[in-house]
User: Fold TetR family transcriptional regulator from Roseibium aquae.
Amino acid sequence: MPSKAQRPVQGKRRQTASKVRAAALTLFARYGYAAVSMRQIASEVGVQPGALYNHFPTKQDILKDLMLSHMGELLTAWTSAKPHPQTDPLVAFARFHIRYHMERADEVFVSYMELRNLEADNFAAVDAERRRYEAILTGILEDGAANGRYALDDPKVTTRALIAMLTGIATWYRASGTLSRQTVEDYYINLVCRAVSLEPGKTQRENG
Amino acid sequence: MPSKAQRPVQGKRRQTASKVRAAALTLFARYGYAAVSMRQIASEVGVQPGALYNHFPTKQDILKDLMLSHMGELLTAWTSAKPHPQTDPLVAFARFHIRYHMERADEVFVSYMELRNLEADNFAAVDAERRRYEAILTGILEDGAANGRYALDDPKVTTRALIAMLTGIATWYRASGTLSRQTVEDYYINLVCRAVSLEPGKTQRENG
Amino acid sequence: MPSKAQRPVQGKRRQTASKVRAAALTLFARYGYAAVSMRQIASEVGVQPGALYNHFPTKQDILKDLMLSHMGELLTAWTSAKPHPQTDPLVAFARFHIRYHMERADEVFVSYMELRNLEADNFAAVDAERRRYEAILTGILEDGAANGRYALDDPKVTTRALIAMLTGIATWYRASGTLSRQTVEDYYINLVCRAVSLEPGKTQRENG
Amino acid sequence: MPSKAQRPVQGKRRQTASKVRAAALTLFARYGYAAVSMRQIASEVGVQPGALYNHFPTKQDILKDLMLSHMGELLTAWTSAKPHPQTDPLVAFARFHIRYHMERADEVFVSYMELRNLEADNFAAVDAERRRYEAILTGILEDGAANGRYALDDPKVTTRALIAMLTGIATWYRASGTLSRQTVEDYYINLVCRAVSLEPGKTQRENG
DNA sequence: AATGAATGAGTGTTCATTCAT
DNA sequence: TATGAATGAACACTCATTCAT
Assistant:
């Protein structure tokens, strides 16, 4: 049973930090890290600029926090995802990737656009997570290539090509458009499957 | 016969403007438009900041110039490209796109990353060019779909997916790596072909 | 008999105030009043900045407290000093001054350097104490000049000259150097004596 | 014959830089380096804050410039000083020091008070000059002690004592007071002479 | 007595841009 | 065509101080 004496002060701290993250994410996604000022973030949060520094030591730390937690959550989400065991792994991964990226367009956009604005050590940390994530797809492609299920030339090149293709959705898809998420997802799944010569209709694993 | 009365002064003017473009391109690609100052550009050119304003009225105009001329040259290059008439049009386009984008990594990078830093009217101008370019691919896909040569769900969605995939090469390909340009090109062509169920080996048009 | 009912709470209050004084003294001496922040002091004390305000209403009050109590203790120390009655008064004073200032380099340094950072009324209070202290020496010089023991042109000018000379020790003397305190003291006493033509060897009052 | 085509622009540059130095000197002397803002300096100069950076890269550089040029000018002035050859060297040096320091109270004050605000390398540069200057006096004292003209215990300690005494004039002397410069100078000369047992009346070198 | 989030003003410095030369 | 001094606004960040807890 959790303590009932939780101090509201704790809540307030988390709340403000949370608002800062949210405001920064939106602003960075729209205008870019370098073009957003701490004043803009503070004003969005409804606080004076100096107050931001009670929660993040520098502007760079906000960016690092956003990018690292995005990557962390992405990896966690994949780990907890339990696709139907008979679904083809590439299809499972692609569906997961598409859905996650459509739902988090801002995080995705920032994570791809602001890499160059990370200071060296922060970049290294974020890049390591990116590699871990891409390695999942590379592993799936290697397995599928090994057992003849997928046709491909090079798992790493294919990884990059497919990730770029799928992640690109976030740059153009608008929920307000004519295409539903499900439709877009299905079209891209078909592209992915064909790209490795996996029959789109036959995306259930054969149990041998 | 070219005019013999070319004034060297004209040459000098063009030369400096040219250096400005080159410096800005490199710097924007590396650090981003918002993070690069006119002072940095001037210093790279070997000139005082005020001198830049003899060639470009504002910083924004440098960006607009770079992006518009990149799109213009891209369209011109496609128009002048004379692929072998028996080559499949999708393959021809993809090969053209890959080669052009591998050779101009900085232009491509800037053109994709700095769209949000364009002021409204400049964005409109650049975006119109982008649409013209993508329309070429959409047209090819529509034709191919109509005559049953390509399998695809939606030409516009496929256009975006393929463009994202191919353009992504610029973000990871390094000439210093282990893969030759030709190899990368071939791998991507295979991906493109399979993505629309065009037999990679059968990329010559049948003449009917 | 001291009260046995001393409350530890009182002790704690005094303790923290004391730590604040000590931290501020060290920091002001090293970096100067204006260059030291309340945060630095708090961090040195091991407390949050806000807590300082339970002990001193403003940063200025810390400085005033340090300087006024330094002057107070200096005057008290002189009053309680009981030099050998046969010692020449100038020599007694100079020895006292040298010893006191060598032992309290930080207090001395702050008291001489930060006068300009005192607000008007605080300056007046501290300056009054300084005058009281210097008046002691002026009195000694006037007496000695009157009875022909010392040769000097003007007691006030001589006071300032000697005080500057003696206080200057604090700016260069390091206990870690090659000269012992006693040696330095003796050398300066000789300088003082000669400066008023008092035979260094004859520093015992003749009792008439 | 100097060029007549001197550009007034050159004059303007020097003029502003000069005003900055003057304003900074006055302000640093009155309020201390740390307590003076670039805005205050700019406002005193009659310019926007950013303009200061056309002349000094940082605030620290203004301080360095002031202190280094003060020391440089001091050393130059001593080198060019041609005291009467029959004047005792200690007296000549002391007179020079007193006069120079009375005329440049601000420079002197800043140079003694702001040493701790110099960054390490700037401090080293300034301190080296200070040592050079003090070495002049030490040399004079050593010579005089060697030929029995002065009585003293240790040339280095005596140097510090005398310099502190003489430099201290700047902290209290006001031209508006009752004592003339000449009177103060004479009184201090007498103190210096007696401090090394040099008969004040006998300050002409005996030519042997 | 102490915390820690917040304020409002301020810091040194940089910015894109202008303009007399 | 270029310089370089200047502007006026903005930047990231820090300050002394307050106050609810």
Observations:
- Residues 120-146 of chain A form the longest helix (27 residues).
